[in-house]
Amino acid sequence: MIKVGIIGGSGLDNPDILKDAKEFKAQTPYGPPTSTLIAGSIDKVAVAIIARHGRDHSIYPSKVNFRANIWALKEQGCTHILASTAVGSLREEIAPGHLVFPSQFIDHTKKREATFFDEDVVVHTPMAEPFCLNLIALLSSSAKGLGLPFHPNKTVITIEGPRFSTKAESHMFRSWNADVINMSTVPEVNLAREKKIHYAAIAMSTDYDCWHAEEEPVTWEMILSTMKKNADNVIKLFLDVIPKIKAYEDDCLR
Q1: Which of 49, 58, 178, 236 is 20–30 Å from 18 (CA)?
Q2: Catalytic site includes residue 118
Q3: Domains defined for the chain, CATH in brackets
Q4: Residue 187 in contact with residue 118, Cβ under 8 Å?
Q5: 207 part of the active site
Q6: Set 56, 107, 179, 207: catalytic member
Q7: Residue 41 near residue 47, CB atoms below 8 Å
Q8: DSSP for 104-137?
Q9: pTM surpassing 0.85?
């Protein structure tokens, strides 16, 4: 049975998109998730939504209980995860407002719990293809059909935060062939892979980080403004792609 988990970023955890939505609390071996879960359906596909930073956006990136969030979605039977996230662009062609569907990540975090396998047993999880390539293909097809500007198969670098990058760091990340930057994809994506959940990120470019000489350095207010303008596009994408997942033979974890 297909069930889709939505991990919502800023403004993208709206329960109104679900039919017969019900809210409930979840408990995990890693403590409570960062929000209550809201379960319902979209076009007859079971869906569960969790707010990554809390319903009131009060949890900063390094304090997100990623393990509890992924565990809770797995316990609810989620087979797929669509995770929305704000990203800074490290490439001229990825303009603010564009969507990005990463296929690779670079982990530049320093103090996060990044595995479920830290006790009793050693498990080495393959991570060559951390994101679900089939979901990326579906997202790309839906975005094209909706007329949304998008960039598939890019590399996201996740930094610790909550501060933004220096110019020197931003240029260094560009030299590493990273395309976008955020503070939330790692360890979310690798934890989902450990739990054998198909995972794809719907990343919204909100700014040009600070490498771009002709743009103002990024601010939180800038990010919120762009997210507010474009949140409807991401919700349209959710509504369009989720029914397609049900009919798709997804074998990337086999």
Answers
A1: 58
A2: no
A3: 3-246 (3.40.50.1580)
A4: no
A5: yes
A6: 207
A7: yes
A8: EEEEE-SS----S-SSS-------SS-S-HHHHH
A9: yes
